[in-house]
Every structure is written in structure tokens, then in C-alpha cells.
Design a protein that fits this description.
This protein is an alpha/beta fold. It contains twelve helices and twelve strands. The protein has a five-stranded parallel β-sheet with strand order 2-1-3-4-5. Strands 8-7-9-10-11 form a five-stranded parallel β-sheet, sandwiched between helices.
Length: 359
């Protein structure tokens, strides 16, 4: 007797306590619909459902939250919901900096009631990296104890640092930036020449150190270079990207340049701020630390107390957890002057670049 073959397909059912989220625009990392994205990441709170279908309920007011991505609302005018519920969360989502993507249209003032960005005063803030203590607790921002007892470095780490012979390096794939970091590198190189030192540039904007993988670049960084230039491509409040991890992961002291208050985000004496000095004094400091290894080793004392690791950006688990946290659902927030909150110099940015100018 012939057997019948059946194809069994799992379906996602709606639940009464489910939080339904509409992607009004594309959002980085949200490439699947339904509940799957929360299940795959094994989120503690899984009661959320993602959809791009604006007609799913016949009325967008039935969605608990609607997400809007900065890249789309910054560069072009988009059709917005014509109706909204007072209970809905209109969430502004940004993975890019405010300086690269200002918001110009006045319609967005008093439009969003939640924000999900790298800024620490966002409703759902995120970071590109995490600082943890030796108990593997994420310390967040602004809590780094000053350790007066110097423990010293272990012999293995010292042996790794001992092989270094070159001053500094930066990996660059964007040759022109809003922060003018390429000019910074050029000027710093001129000052370093006085000490027979230089900054090496790898990537599309310099020499190639790898073809298919970055592994050879990272090996060179760990073995050869004292410093890594973690220069942001734009200057914005709280904006520090994952590029700073190159220095921390591969034992090169990061030289940082950006718009954040770095002391709020990074362990004390683990980096050098280029914002607080000029290239002449920075070049002199680089030379002094290379000549005085014990002073250079002091910049790795933080390893006895902390680790610096990757951190998920725009983590769906964070979104679902916040949407299911009752105090936040009833907490009313309004960004009346949203454009200025996001970028204090938005008027200048919106007028100087034609792709942002609508009025």
C-alpha cells in the first residue's frame, strides 16, 4: 500500500502577551520576521514578534512598537504613519553617528518617544564593546575604580610586548572622513619623523597587509606596534565604535580621537586621548613611552582588573526585554526637540550637505 508523505511546517502563532514590532524601515540585524530572531539568540525574554508587513493587523495602531532607522529618515523623505496610538512606542534606531546622519525634517521633533542608539541617555542604549571586571560583570559606563596597588604584568604579556619595534598603525578603509582623521594621521606623521618614527596605514587607504582575511594584519599589530590609532570617522556625543578593540585585543595602546568622554567608557590609564593634546606633544609622548618600556607597560596594568570585549550592537534581546518591562511601557517620554538632541549642530549639517536638505 503506497504511503502518503506530508510536509509539516511550523507556524508562528500570535499570543495575547506578545509584543508586536513593525519595521517601518529596514533596521540593521533584523533580517528575519516572526519570533525566530529572539529564539535563535536564546533571549531571556522571547515574547516579541517582528514584522515588515504594515497591513498585518489592518491598522498600524495595533503594533506595540514601530522602528525607524536613522539612515532612511536622514537621507530621504519617507511616508510616515498617518495614525498612531498613544500607547505605541515610536523608536528611533541608529547604528551610525549623528554627525554622519543628522535628522533634518522638522516633522521628527516630538515624533519619537523612545530611542535606541549608542548614546547613553537613550531609552535603550548600547555600546560597541563591553568592559567587564574579573567576575565577568559588565560595568556599563562611568564605573571604573582607581586601583592604587600596582600588581605588575605577568612574564608572558611582557614577552609579547618586548617584540614591538614600530610606533603606530591604523587600519583605514574610508579615506575621507567627517572627523578629518586622515589629516590627523598626516600631521602626526610629520611630528613623528623628528624621532625617526611613523604611523603605518593599512587597508584601502594605505598598504595591504592581507587579501582575504584580517588575521595577518592583527598578527602584525600584536607583534610589531606599540600603538593603535582608534580615530573615529566622525565626532559625535558618546560615539566610540568597535575599532578601539583592535588596540585592546592585540596589545597595542589605543590612541583615541572622537566626541565621547572616554573616561566614562574605558579603564583609567588604558588609552591616550589625542583630543586632550596636540600632535607635537603626542609624538613626543609616543617616543618617550617607546624609549621607557616600564612606563609603556603601565598602560597594560588595567588587564589585572578588567577585560574589554565585543558587545552586541542593536541586540534584539535588549529590545524585547525593554518592551516587556512594565515600568518602561507606562513611562512616557517625548523628544520635543529631537533634531537638536540627536545632533546639536544639525542646522549646519543639514544646510551644508545637499543630500540632507529638504527645505
Amino acid at each position: 500500500m503506497p504511503k502518503k508523505l506530508y510536509t509539516v511546517k511550523k507556524i508562528t502563532r500570535f499570543q495575547q502577551d506578545m509584543k508586536h514590532v513593525l519595521l517601518w524601515t529596514d533596521v540593521p540585524g533584523f533580517d528575519e520576521e516572526g519570533q525566530r530572531i529572539f529564539l535563535k539568540r536564546n533571549c531571556q525574554t522571547k515574547g516579541c514578534y517582528i514584522s515588515k508587513n504594515k497591513s498585518l493587523f489592518g491598522d498600524v495602531r495595533y503594533f506595540d512598537a514601530i522602528l525607524f532607522n536613522v539612515e532612511e529618515i536622514s537621507e530621504r523623505k519617507i511616508e510616515l504613519p498617518s495614525v498612531r496610538s498613544g500607547l505605541q512606542k515610536y523608536i528611533f534606531v541608529a547604528k551610525e553617528s549623528a554627525d554622519n546622519y543628522p535628522v533634518c525634517d522638522e516633522v521628527y521633533d516630538d515624533f519619537f518617544n523612545w530611542t535606541w542608539t549608542y548614546r547613553i541617555d537613550s531609552t535603550i542604549p548600547y555600546r560597541f564593546f563591553a568592559v567587564r571586571n574579573l567576575h565577568d560583570q559588565d560595568l556599563g559606563t562611568g564605573y571604573f575604580q582607581h586601583h592604587t596597588k600596582i600588581i605588575g604584568l605577568d612574564k608572558f604579556l611582557k614577552s609579547q610586548l618586548y617584540s614591538k619595534s614600530k610606533a603606530a598603525v591604523i587600519f583605514l578603509d574610508k579615506c575621507k572622513s567627517r572627523s578629518k582623521r586622515e589629516d590627523f594621521v598626516f600631521e602626526l606623521n610629520k611630528e613623528l619623523e623628528k624621532y625617526n618614527l611613523s604611523v603605518d596605514v593599512y587597508g584601502k587607504c594605505g598598504k595591504q597587509c592581507a587579501r582575504k582575511t584580517m588575521a595577518p594584519c592583527f598578527w602584525r599589530l600584536r607583534k610589531n606596534y606599540f600603538f593603535y590609532l582608534a580615530l573615529e570617522d566622525s565626532v559625535a556625543v558618546d560615539y566610540i565604535t568597535e575599532h578601539i578593540l583592535y588596540g585592546y585585543k592585540y596589545n597595542a595602546v589605543p590612541i583615541v580621537y572622537g566626541g565621547a568622554n572616554y573616561s566614562e567608557f574605558l579603564p583609567k590609564n588604558s588609552y591616550i586621548s589625542a583630543v586632550d593634546t596636540d600632535n607635537k606633544h603626542l609624538a613626543s609622548l609616543i617616543n618617550d613611552l617607546i624609549q621607557n618600556r616600564s612606563r609603556y607597560y603601565d598602560y597594560f596594568e588595567w588587564k589585572n582588573h578588567y577585560t574589554v570585549t565585543d558587545h552586541p550592537v542593536l541586540d534584539p534581546c535588549s529590545l524585547c526585554r525593554t518592551l516587556n518591562y512594565e515600568p518602561w511601557l507606562t513611562h512616557r517620554v517625548s523628544y520635543i526637540f529631537f533634531r537638536e538632541w540627536w545632533s546639536s549642530n544639525y542646522k549646519t549639517r543639514c544646510s551644508e550637505d545637499s543630500k540632507f536638505t529638504w527645505f
